Amino acid sequence: MDASFSPEQDEIRRTLRELLHSRCGPRELRTALDTPAGHDPGLWTALAEQLGLPGLALPEAYGGVGCSATELALACEETGRALAPSPLLATAVLAAPLIAALGTDAQRAELLPRLASGKLTAALAVPGTALAAALALTGDNGGDWAGGGRAGGVQARRAADGWRLYGQVDQVLDGHSAGLLLVAAHAGGFARSRTLLFLVPGDAAGVVRARQTALDATRPQGRVQLRDVDADLLGDEGGREVLPALASVGDTAAAVLACEAVGAADRALERTVEHVGQREQFGRTIGSFQAVKHRLADAYVQVQAARSAAYYAAWAATPRGATPQRGAGNCATGHDEPADAGRHIAAPPAERLALAQSLEALRTAAAEGIQLHGGIGFTWEHEAHLYFKRAASDELLFGPVHRLRAHAADAARLFDTQEVAV
């Protein structure tokens, strides 16, 4: 197996880092956060038109670049370094794969090219605070998070002209600004309870949206109210089930989020090393103190270990057996398989373990940054607190770490015991 990156993958990372360095510095970042959308539309247009980022992992038949989850994860590592606020996660990582997996031919043909071009953004609206549960990151996805069959969440009912939705969804990533809402709703009543996904235009009649105040302002969230709204069912009722599709998207999302967290942790640690090399106490830089060196060395080892786990998770999230395609407009979409690739051995899900390790590394790097920057690290004028808030917010949205690891252990049946007859 070849673990090195291809020239195309290296080029994606290099070009994206240069673009973000010139278009998403500290001043530009804070300006974007103060806009109603919470991100810079000009930067999003540049990411879409110059790099094709929204369609990086979408098939070329639908206007995408035709790359794999690996390239998307590496791109998100760079956006994580810059804490770049954009609809990339909500659109390309969560919504687009669900439309590609569950949508009818007509729905895919209509929506995926617009998503790939960046002209249309989308958001996955999951009731309550259950995004991690819906993506099967922290537990088995039983669908009870969608309303439980009685009340709460979003309820769907049949109407003469299709489906109608009623309910409220909080903490929707980019839900206040997305052009398309992908709403998870409960249907069928208590006796025939099921979870379905519906397509709702962001400006549809009966949709009321507002941006929420979030701990991490670089990951904007919105509240979405649906007041008897017309909706189109994603796919058809006899097609692929929603819950397995959400869990499959969760695998890719975990790998992408792990790489994003590694990028943020690396940048937070880099900024801290720069600071301790300049700040002086008792006539010498604080970076020369042995205690500071030990703390930063421990954080560095943790970040590098998380990077290895995240890269492996990105590789593991790519379907096996694909033939590598190289050339103009194509990325490597397959991997060389090890000799024992055909063996099916129960193992903890790599993506969830990598996400847990990466979130922990980000929390450590961000916390050390706050401590070693001193009082200035807590101020709005400094970037250190932004990385700390990203670490705390991501654990609330996609974790916490101990539940990610516990679910991975349960999935691999690591702690199953058998009674031994004496």
Task: Characterise the protein shown here.
The protein is an alpha+beta fold. Among the domains are: 124-241, Butyryl-CoA Dehydrogenase, subunit A, domain 2 (Beta Barrel); 243-332 and 348-412, Butyryl-CoA Dehydrogenase, subunit A, domain 3 (Up-down Bundle). It has 12 helices and 9 strands. It has helices at 7-23, 26-33, 41-51, 69-82, 88-102, 105-117, 131-134, 242-276, 290-316, 350-373, 384-398, 401-412; strands at residues 122-125, 154-159, 162-173, 180-187, 194-201, 207-212, 221-233, 280-281, 284-285. Strands 1, 2, 3, 4, 5, 6 and 7 form a 7-stranded mixed sheet that branches. The protein has a two-stranded antiparallel ribbon with strand order 8-9. A hairpin with an 8-residue loop joins strand 6 and strand 7. The longest helix is centred in the middle third of the chain and has 35 residues, at 242-276. The radius of gyration is 22 Å and the shape is globular. One of its GO terms (molecular function) is acyl-CoA dehydrogenase activity.
Per CATH, the superfamily of the domain at 243-332 and 348-412 is: Butyryl-CoA Dehydrogenase, subunit A, domain 3
Tell me what the CATH architecture of the domain at 243-332 and 348-412 is: Up-down Bundle
CATH class of the domain at 243-332 and 348-412, named: Mainly Alpha
What overall form do the CA principal axes indicate? Answer: globular
For the largest beta-sheet, the strand count, sense and barrel status come to: 7 strands, mixed
**The CATH topology of the domain at 243-332 and 348-412 is what?**
Butyryl-CoA Dehydrogenase, subunit A, domain 3
Structural class: alpha+beta
> Number of helical segments?
12
From the alpha carbons, calculate the radius of gyration and give it in angstroms.
22 Å
- Share of residues in strands: 5-15%
* Strand elements, count: 9
Helix content: 40-55%
Low-confidence parts lasting 5 or more residues at pLDDT below 50?
A: 321-329, 333-347
- The sequence of SSEs as H and E is HHHHHHEHEEEEEEHEEHHHH
- Average pLDDT taken over every residue: 88
Distance between the termini: 45 Å
